[in-house]
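Journal club prep — side note

Before the paper discussion, L.F. wants everyone to see what a predicted structure for a comparable chain looks like in token form. Sequence:
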Amino acid sequence: MFSLPCLDCLEYHTSYRGRQNNIAKVEDVETLELCQTFCAAHPDCSFFRYSVKHRDCALRSGQVGARVPREDVVSGLCPCIPSPDDEMQPPGMTTGGPVGV
């Protein structure tokens, strides 16, 4: 079983660009944790991008390229090794829906 989310592997307000292959886009994903779980469960998924605003999850393989600022996006690597500081939540970002809801 996965212990998610693993904050060491998450980049809030960031979208990964570059040499990558889109494996799947899953719509109506309620939480960041569920997106991360989808990636961890897929054998080819290296990283993911979760849109808080649109509640969609993009599973990707390949190499992470440039990191591009994007307000309502969280990107992360898989697999992720949890650290003792994973209880912290970055300010201004929620994992269950748009900020302010």
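L.F.'s comment for the group: The chain has one helix and five strands. Keep this in mind when we get to the figures.
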